[in-house]
Amino acid sequence: MRSGPDLRAGARRFTYTFDVSERARIAVNASIVGDRPTGLGHYALHVVSALDALGERLTVYTSRPDFVDAPRARLRRISAGVQPERGPLGHLRRLLWTQTMLWAYVRRDRPRLLLNLTSEGLLWSPVPQVTVVHDLLPLLFPAEYPRHQYYYRHFVPGVLLRSRAIIVPSDSTRRDLVRFYPGVAPDRIHVVLLGYDERLFPPEAPAEVEAEKEPYALYVGNVMPHKNLLRIVEAFAVAVGRRPGRLVILGRGRAVHARALRARIDALGLASRVDWRPHADAVELGRLYQRARMLVLPSLYEGFGLTALEAMACGTPVLTANVSSMPEVVGDAALLVDPTDVGAIADGMARLFTDDLLAKDLGERGRLRARCFSWEKTGQEVLDVIRRVAP
């Protein structure tokens, strides 16, 4: 999985003080935040921070209150056993915790509304709830997620039917919800785009960032079949040929998928030209973006495609897919290709490796495009949805 921004520097110590006369307006289910927050965890942390900055009174349920940068919020430490790092057992514990302990906490704290920052919400909520759905990957790629089928076909629609409003990160995901969950009224689904952290991905490249002697294409994300990594390495082999160039892969995945990718890299004779790293801290990630010749993200599906936004913010040219949410995110600031066509991906990579004018133009367009997005804007739009449905 991609390593996102490290928010620990902005976090604070927490207390358990609670005054019913000053009860929070919004309770936040942030159980998805673990010891090594991935994209979903960072989304949760940024939304909490943004809502707090807007002056909302929050009670946040999380196993890592020290990661939360929300000075006015009340932070409730929950069991570390529900963290995503605990794998399938952690997921099961989180579902049980949601229907039991979260329900009890909400009954006790009596907020006006519960905000679920993933699709793991209450089937029977004592207060109105708003639920965020990031994507429906398990329904679109069932072979990749066999254990998730019952959850997404039965549990998730139950939560959504009992939510006053549903927030999605793109119109693409909105269409998926309408398709798979016809019982959910479309007018309860609201598109709220994601943001990025300008402190970590500055719109102007620092002067100390030096160009790499050998240009590289960068991939940031999970090692999963829908991410299209097998086609990426095949296209890379064609694009560079004997010319200088490297491929940097930043991410990890299930062992079976990692083995398949390693085998393809070896079969193509690319072992010496592919730099595969499991993770990076926030500073290193920013530098990888800034020094890259391009970001390659020709995924078969993305609920939003946050890494494309982060790359654009850094002025890094983006090559991405012409399907799912990607055209919404990048607009005219990226090269869009058919993700099933290795030749098209290879042609795009070759152009960005060799065409300095194209790379510069896309970098400038990307910076302009990224200015349309911010976590502050995300927080405000989430709050707008809450205000429409809060009693």
Quick overview of this protein structure:
With 391 residues, the protein is of the alpha/beta class. It has helices at residues 39-53, 87-109, 137-140, 149-161, 171-180, 229-240, 255-267, 282-291, 306-313, 326-330, 342-354, 356-370, 375-389; strands at residues 26-29, 58-62, 74-77, 113-116, 129-132, 165-168, 189-191, 216-220, 246-250, 274-277, 294-297, 318-321, 335-337.
Provide structural commentary.
With 391 residues, the protein is an alpha/beta fold. It contains 13 helices and 13 strands. Strands 3-2-1-4-5-6-7 form a 7-stranded parallel sheet, with helices on both faces. Strands 10-9-8-11-12-13 form a 6-stranded parallel sheet, sandwiched between helices. Helix 9 links the parallel strand 11 and strand 12 (318-321). The protein is globular. 47% of the residues are buried.
Strand content: 5-15%
Order of strands in the sheet with most strands:
3-2-1-4-5-6-7
Q: Helicity range of the residues? A: 25-40%
Average pLDDT, all residues: 91
Distance between the termini: 39 Å
Sketch the major β-sheet.
7 strands, parallel
Principal-axes shape call: globular
Using only C-alpha atoms, the radius of gyration works out to 21 Å
Residue runs with pLDDT of under 50 for 5 or more positions? 1-21
Quaternary = single chain
Q: Based on DSSP secondary structure assignment, what is the total number of beta strands?
A: 13
Summed up, the helix count is 13
Give me the strand/helix succession.
EHEEHEEHHEHEEHEHEHEHEHEHHH
Structural class: alpha/beta
